[in-house]
Amino acid sequence: MPTIQEQIDQQDLSLFKTIESQSSEDDRRSFMALNSAFRQWKGGKFTFLEIGSYKGGSLQSYVADPGCTKIISMDPRPKFTQDAREKTSDYSHVTTQDMLDLLAKVPGADVKKVIPIEKGTDQMKPSELPFKPDFCFIDGEHTDTTVVRDARFCLNAMGPDCAMAFHDGDIIYLGLDMFLAELAASGRKFRAYNLPSSVFVIELGECRLSQAEPMRSWRDQNYLGYLYCLKRNDVFRTTAREYWRIAEHPAFKLPHKLGLVKVAKKIMGGGKKKK
Ligand SMILES: C[S@@+](CC[C@H](N)C(=O)[O-])C[C@H]1O[C@@H](n2cnc3c(N)ncnc32)[C@H](O)[C@@H]1O
């Protein structure tokens, strides 16, 4: 019978069967590759901060891994969670206590090491955290501005040799781009890459997660994530194609000439800069 750490190192998906997670199977393989790499990089023991936990789905391997000694779960559990695609979700029916109860059911879980904080990164300072995390995972509000704020918070919360990962890079890519530009301008040493399906990793300082297995081999498969993200965003290309097809239809020539299309766009908020 393999130990929990062996299961994590083998990216055994059965570790994620207790709680429904907002992630694909490949995302879960990435969570475990990261979990394994964090433990190996820190010589066996590490601490972890997650922003945006919902039911605790993405915490399942961490809560069971004895190598992960402490976990902070930051989640203000607002009524509505915004998203860069303008899709609003309501996760608030799941409470912090519900999450802890679910996590307690994960085989091998030590739920006492989870410190939940019902606040966002706009409501506290990194210095107010109960401990300095070694690694952070960001999966809270999926807007570009909030992701940048969360990433800055994590950067200030951790030591110089650390890593952070983001879920759903295909939604918050402009935030990632902004944050990476800030990092580059600051002169900090970093490496960034995508893992399947949509997990974006930034290693800082001397941190080298991808030197260890299974991370090294898993990272070689990152074409899976590249194509997954493009395909998931293809709905926008399809919509744009349809929009251009309609806009170029001869029936729209006169309204265009009369400026009516411009007026319609203005009424509908078209061309307005979105956050
Ligand atoms: C996509 S779900 C997280 C899914 C979870 N990580 C998993 O894989 O199962 C997003 C979560 O972010 C939380 N959230 C919303 N706004 C937030 C904020 N400003 N800071 C942190 N978490 C936030 C929501 O309450 C929700 O639980």
The major pleated sheet works out as: 7 strands, mixed
How far apart lie the N and C ends? Answer: 49 Å
Number of domains: 2
The helical percent reads: 25-40%
Query: Can you tell me the CATH architecture of the largest domain?
Result: 3-Layer(aba) Sandwich
- The tally of strands reads 7
Mean pLDDT: 94
Describe this structure in words.
By secondary structure, this protein is α/β, with parallel strands linked by helices. It folds into 2 domains: 228 residues, 3-Layer(aba) Sandwich (Rossmann fold), CATH 3.40.50.150; 28 residues, no CATH class. It has 11 helices and 7 strands. It has a 7-stranded mixed beta sheet, with helices on both faces. The longest helix is centred in the N-terminal third of the chain and has 17 residues. The model has no long low-confidence stretch (mean pLDDT 94). It binds S-adenosylmethionine. The site of S-adenosylmethionine has 22 residues, from loops.
Task: Please sum up the structure shown.
With 275 residues, the chain is α/β, with parallel strands linked by helices. It is 39% helix and 14% strand.
Structure keywords:
single chain; 275 residues; alpha/beta; Rossmann fold; binds S-adenosylmethionine
List strands and helices in order, with pairings.
Elements: H1 4-9, H2 25-41, E1 46-51, H3 60-64, E2 68-74, H4 96-104, E3 114-117, E4 135-138, H5 144-157, E5 162-167, H6 173-186, E6 190-195, E7 199-204, H7 215-220, H8 223-232, H9 234-247, H10 253-257, H11 260-267
Parallel strand pairs: 1-2, 1-4, 2-3, 4-5
Antiparallel strand pairs: 5-7, 6-7
